[in-house]
Amino acid sequence: SFTMNMYLFVYDLMQFCGHSWIFTNMIIRFMTFGKDSLADTFHSIGLVMRLCQLLSVLEILHILIGIDKSRLLPRFLQITERIIILFVVINSQEEVQGKYVVCVLFFLWNLLDVVRYTYNMLARMGIYYLPLTWLNFSLGIPLYPLSVLAKGFAICVSLPYFESFGTYSIKLPFPFTFSIYFPYVLKMYLLVLFAGMCFIIQNLFSERMAHLGTGNIKNKRS
C-alpha cells in the first residue's frame, strides 16, 4: 500500500542519512588527522552507529509482517552478527574500542549500507539505475567476507580482555554447579560466524542472479 511504501521510504531515508553521516565523518577525519583518527573512531561515531544498528532490527519485523519481501534468515544473521559484535564485543570492552579493526568494520558496514539504502529508496519510487543496481547486488560479494574476517579478528582481540575481566562470565551459586565462561562462548560463535558466511554468500549470489539476470536487466531498462 501507499502508506507502507511511504513508511519504508522514510525508514530507508533515516538509515541512509545515518550511515552517510558516519561514512563522510570517517573520511573527513582520516583526511584531516590521518592514522590518529583511526583509534578514536568508536568514540567519535559510535553513538550514531549504535542507533543505526538498533534501528536495523526493524527490518526483521518488516519481513515477518510481509511488507519486505527479503529472505528472513540471511537478513536475521547479518543483523544479529552486527549487534553481537558492536554491543557485546566492542561496546563492552573499552580496550577494544581503540583498535584499528573497529575502524575497518565501520568502514565496510557503512559502505555497504550507503549503497543498499540508496538503492532501496529509489526502488520504493520505481526508479532503477543499472550501475546502482549492479553495485548494490555485487558489492557485498567481496566485502561481506572481508567484514566477517574483521569480525573474527575483533573477537580474537577481545578474548584476553574477557578472560581478564570476566565480563559476561557467570558462575551460579550452590546448589547449582553450572557456569558460563564467556570466552568459550565467543570461540564457539566464531564457528557459527564463518558457517553463516557461507550461507549468506550463497544468498548474495542468488539475489544477484535474480536481479541482474539478462531478462531482469532488459525489463528494468525498459
TrEMBL record:
Name of the gene this protein is made from: Hacd4
Protein's UniProt keywords contain Ribosomal protein: no
UniProt record similarity statement: Belongs to the very long-chain fatty acids dehydratase HACD family.
Single biological process term from Gene Ontology: sphingolipid biosynthetic process
Entry-linked PANTHER family: VERY-LONG-CHAIN (3R)-3-HYDROXYACYL-COA DEHYDRATASE (PTHR11035), VERY-LONG-CHAIN (3R)-3-HYDROXYACYL-COA DEHYDRATASE 4 (PTHR11035:SF16)
Stated role: Catalyzes the third of the four reactions of the long-chain fatty acids elongation cycle. This endoplasmic reticulum-bound enzymatic process, allows the addition of two carbons to the chain of long- and very long-chain fatty acids/VLCFAs per cycle. This enzyme catalyzes the dehydration of the 3-hydroxyacyl-CoA intermediate into trans-2,3-enoyl-CoA, within each cycle of fatty acid elongation. Thereby, it participates to the production of VLCFAs of different chain lengths that are involved in multiple biological processes as precursors of membrane lipids and lipid mediators.
EC number: 4.2.1.134
Keyword flag NAD: no
One cellular-component annotation, GO: endoplasmic reticulum membrane
Catalytic activity: (3R)-hydroxyhexadecanoyl-CoA = (2E)-hexadecenoyl-CoA + H2O; a very-long-chain (3R)-3-hydroxyacyl-CoA = a very-long-chain (2E)-enoyl-CoA + H2O
Any GO MF annotation of the entry: very-long-chain (3R)-3-hydroxyacyl-CoA dehydratase activity
Superkingdom of the organism of origin: Eukaryota
Name used for this protein in its record: Very-long-chain (3R)-3-hydroxyacyl-CoA dehydratase
Topology class, membrane: Multi-pass membrane protein
Stretches that traverse the bilayer: 7-30, 42-65, 127-144, 181-201
InterPro entries referenced in this protein's UniProt entry, alphabetically: Tyr_Pase-like_PTPLA (IPR007482)
Pathway given in the UniProt record: Lipid metabolism; fatty acid biosynthesis
Class of this enzyme: lyase
Species of the source: Ploceus nigricollis
